[in-house]
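Tokens as discussed.
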């Protein structure tokens, strides 16, 4: 009887997370498939500049973390990729932002980036 009650509760919480568009990172390393010029649809830098959320052309989100913080990344309007493979972006590849080259330490599947908190205006 305990198993019957536990399973619906787990499904309910997993469904709520998916409804919000958030998928937990499982820590499993993945690569982002790249086949042409329009493969990266969007990107957003993490708040502390130690990683980047990348959305591919299929609207899947990935979180790429860097070995160290990239200072130019939060101010970049465009980014570039330097990859060992022409077909995918993997751990060890580089993201170019301005004059800075940021090496990727890990890539995991992710939900969309967290929403930015808007500060209230003082009238």
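Sequence:
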């Amino acid at each position: 009887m305990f198993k019957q009650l536990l399973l619906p509760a787990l499904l309910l919480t997993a469904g709520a997370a998916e409804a919000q568009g958030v998928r937990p990172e499982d820590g499993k390393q993945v690569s982002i498939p790249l086949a042409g010029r329009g493969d990266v649809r969007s990107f957003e830098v993490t708040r502390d500049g130690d990683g980047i959320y990348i959305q591919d052309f299929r609207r899947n989100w990935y979180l790429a973390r860097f070995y160290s913080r990239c200072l130019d990344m939060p101010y970049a309007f465009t980014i570039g990729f330097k990859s060992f493979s022409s077909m995918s972006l993997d751990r060890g590849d580089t993201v170019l932002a301005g004059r800075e080259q940021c090496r990727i330490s890990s890539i995991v599947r992710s939900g969309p980036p967290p929403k930015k908190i808007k500060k209230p205006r003082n009238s």
